[in-house]
Amino acid sequence: MKVELKNIGKKYEGREDFTLRDINLDIEDKEFCVILGPSGCGKTTLLRMIAGLNSITEGDLLFDGRRVNTVPPKDRDIAMVFQSYALYPHMTVYDNMAFSLTMRKESKKIIDERVRSAAKLLQIEDYLYAKPADISGGQRQRVALGRAIVRNPKVFLMDEPLSNLDAKLREHMRVELVKIHKQLGTTSIYVTHDQTEAMTMATKIVLLDKGKIQQVGKPDDFYNKPSNIFVAKFIGSPTMNIIDGIYKEGKFISKNETIILTPSKEDKIVLEKYENKNVSIGIRPERFESGGEFGDTFTATIEVVEMLGKEKILHAKLSDGSDLVISTPGHYEYNEGEVHKFGFDINAIHFFDTETTMRIN
Ligand SMILES: Nc1ncnc2c1ncn2[C@@H]1O[C@H](COP(=O)(O)OP(=O)(O)OP(=O)(O)O)[C@@H](O)[C@H]1O
Ligand SMILES: [Mg+2]
Predict the structure, then answer these.
(1) Domain named ABC transporter: which ranges (predicted)?
(2) In Å, how far are 77, 210, 358 from 343, measured between CA atoms?
(3) pLDDT in tens, 43-87
(4) Which segments in the chain show pLDDT lower than 50?
(5) What's the CA gap between 301 and 20, in Å, rounded?
(6) How far is the CA of 162 from the centre of ligand 2 (A)?
(7) Which of 89, 249, 273, 351 is at 20 to 30 A from 171, Cα to Cα?
(8) Which CATH number fits domain 241-353: 3.90.550.10, 2.40.50.140, 2.60.40.10, 3.20.20.70?
(9) 17 lines ligand 1 (CB under 6 A)
């Protein structure tokens, strides 16, 4: 099912400001759309409006072209999975999964078929007669998913469903969820503050900040073409370095002239109108060139080396005291206190308008 949000806004009663404003978004049939953003940006509010659990203050919500603003949750053909699994503790896994179908007065045969097929998909067939207290957190999360799947909804809504799991299990469930989505093909809207979940699972990411959409696009777009400095810094780990400076006579010059950089030919064309204006460059930690035999270079003092195995993260200082984070392959030799020369992968530099924070190129 296609879900469309047109100029959606939300103002909670008793609050001065709108929690969400001007939300325009098309979620196509079969899409896995991830709503991403920092704590308090309005993700849950948005999801609950789609579910019908929160009222919509302004704008239109359309399901397959039909306005559903005032349709009650039970008539929306959606299933929601929460962070707290919200299982009934006194019921078996089987009964938890069967519950909504029993309420709908489906036949025993249909219920049994649906529950067993979902259990198979989720690999929880062996626990069907256990109680929630007797299974692990990961298994409980699967039961919560199973309860949504048996309803065969037109849309899955998920609010941070993996956040109670440990790191390893979360990694595993990410892949499982992608596989399940491929198999069922159900339109899914998934809320998280975890950029890795968004980057790995989404066919479309919506990044929210302070109740406004910052960017909508594919994971690739977010990494390679962030629309502004907020997006640039939100996606990618370690965080993108942002260096303020000025554009002058075809060169980017940082404050105190510690970094001077000649942009690529294509960038120069776009930067022409920024002559003598404030410009910020963004460079991801993994896109520096160590040694720096080519092009513009700079020197930095390594203050801290973090060894992560496959990579080493260098926390470096420039001569003017500003900080820079550089990621290098794990087998490269770097020691704290050393001064090193670095260069840029010129094609990996992002330019931002310092005033508006919007990407220039
Ligand atoms: N029922 C409510 N009444 C008034 N304000 C609310 C209500 N629910 C949420 N808010 C406010 O709306 C804003 C967005 O909350 P929301 O729960 O949607 O954020 P979120 O992005 O889901 O955050 P988190 O990542 O922490 O779950 C917050 O400022 C919150 O305090
Ligand atoms: Mg939330």
Answers:
(1) 3-235
(2) 55, 36, 25
(3) 999 999 999 999 999 999 999 999 999 999 999 999 999 888 889
(4) none
(5) 44
(6) 13
(7) 89
(8) 2.40.50.140
(9) no
